[in-house]
Amino acid sequence: MVALEIFGISIYWYGIFYLLSFVLSYLFLYSLARSNLLDNYGKVKNLLKNNLDDIAFYIILGVLLGGRLGYVIFYNQSIIFNNIWEIFFIWQGGMAFVGGVIGVFLSMLYIKSKYKLSYKDFYFLIDLIVIVVPLGIFFGRIGNFLNQELFGKTIDEIGSSILYQNQELLEAINLIYIYETVDQEKRLNTNFLESFGEGLLLFLIFIVIFWKKLISGKYKVGLISGLFLLLYGIIRFIIEFGRDTTQVNYILGFTSSQYFMIIFIILGFMILFGFDKMEKKF
């Protein structure tokens, strides 16, 4: 959905929110690098202080290329055959989170090689990046909402007594919403659920845990990454049940995204409960 036009150029809400999330994430890492919180991780701190622009460039590149290609490959292969140039129209929406994760990880591997980071510094840097990932999710889901995409099932399809009994309240806070570009049905606003659950809530949890563990000297490398994969996977897996059937592909009773979330959950457990052994090899 177009937010505004400048000299005939359409600016989409989706692009504005992506830009906002990048700016806020940059400012967060910039401030963190200039605090004393990272004093025990000197190389990472110096890297963020002196080369944050370079790191930000490769991460943004990973997000955009990975997210867009992931969307096309996993969810909308028709773009390749109908209008292949549309792959680059990221401002119109259509980004796959899983693809973005893969893109960022590949970017981080390049950064590790370029700056010759040890494995411990590499995974700690990933933890720092992961802290701000929920900010991108928060604003990205709002962009999805404004684009009138990724909408939820109708309340009649869900048939939950909780929704019916609290319908007036849920409508007041837009958790039940009519997507007018789709139809006139009252639907579960899965965009807002994901924006809060996968975005704002996880960001606040990570900030509190990271700050407390780092201050106490008990922070374990990989903690935030493992928690993210585990918690995001669980939340997204549950919310997927509320997505409209025209918006998802079902395979043996689960959406394709839910299978990715199962992988996330397994990886999260492996990192949280196996990283201590790995850390000894660093």
Automatic annotation (TrEMBL):
Tell me the InterPro entries matching this sequence.
Lgt (IPR001640)
**Main subcellular location of this protein, as a coarse class:** membrane
Top EC category: transferase
Q: What is its EC number?
A: 2.5.1.145
What GO molecular function terms would the record report? transferase activity
Keyword flag Transmembrane: yes
What does the record say about its membrane topology?
Multi-pass membrane protein
Q: Where in the cell is it found?
A: Cell membrane
Pfam families linked? LGT
Q: What keywords would UniProt list here?
A: Cell membrane, Membrane, Transferase, Transmembrane, Transmembrane helix
Provide the transmembrane region boundaries.
12-33, 54-75, 87-110, 122-142, 196-214, 221-239, 259-275
Residues the record lists as binding a 1,2-diacyl-sn-glycero-3-phospho-(1'-sn-glycerol): 141
Pathways involved: Protein modification; lipoprotein biosynthesis (diacylglyceryl transfer)
Identify its protein family: Belongs to the Lgt family.
What is the stated purpose of this protein? Answer: Catalyzes the transfer of the diacylglyceryl group from phosphatidylglycerol to the sulfhydryl group of the N-terminal cysteine of a prolipoprotein, the first step in the formation of mature lipoproteins.
Report the protein name in the record: Phosphatidylglycerol--prolipoprotein diacylglyceryl transferase
